[in-house]
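so my prof wants the structure for this chain in the tokens format not the other one, which i didnt know existed until like an hour ago. anyway here's the sequence
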Amino acid sequence: MVNIMSVSVEKTGKTVTEAVDAALAELGMSIDEVVVEVLEEGVAPKDGAPYRPARVLVTAEDDKPRYYGDSVNQADHEDEETVAAIKSFVEQVTSAFALPCSVNITLNEDSIDVNIDGDNCGIIIGRGGETLSALQYLTSLVANRERENQVHVHLDVAGYRRRHESNLAAMARRAAAKVARYGRTFEMNPMTPADRRVIHFSLQNFRGVETYSEGEGAERRVIIAPVRKNND
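here's what i got, hopefully its the right format
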């Protein structure tokens, strides 16, 4: 088992971006060197609603993830059982779809990355990634059923999530460029919490704009707004 040294900083701010920037400043690190967990996205004051700051946990880790393909090696007993359970479950699912897919697993300190690859595996993604999200939830239940220490499971199919997040980030940057240029707020379509986090993170260092979320439930969306200038 690899020993991993980590340092975490919890910060608040008016926006997720502001909170993350404060944590990075304290750690003296860049965004590429840390793991960011959004504890609370925050609520901007509106129509008498109380202001609630954004809150994040930023962790700097000296972490070398371990990779598991068709074989499992150099993991402790609990990790071996978890990897075996995940691999067995996901392979049963792909077999039910009659898909010849491979299952590769990367075990990190407190998360497990599972990637499914192969011809015609796109059926596992589903419309808007709904099937993939459901399978990720079920895989997480399987992974944590017998574990003492819970882990987060991130499931992907042939790099779909990576491409999806890249497209979201590109869309966010295009919208932010217009906001910065014309000074008008831009309201994005309703998104899942995971997609909203991608937008917040991709714009956290974008000059001249800030982001926050508005709405409830399935209607919650990201707002990209020009940074308000102080006239003090």
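also thought this was worth mentioning. The helical segments are 16-27, 77-96, 130-144, 160-182, 193-202.
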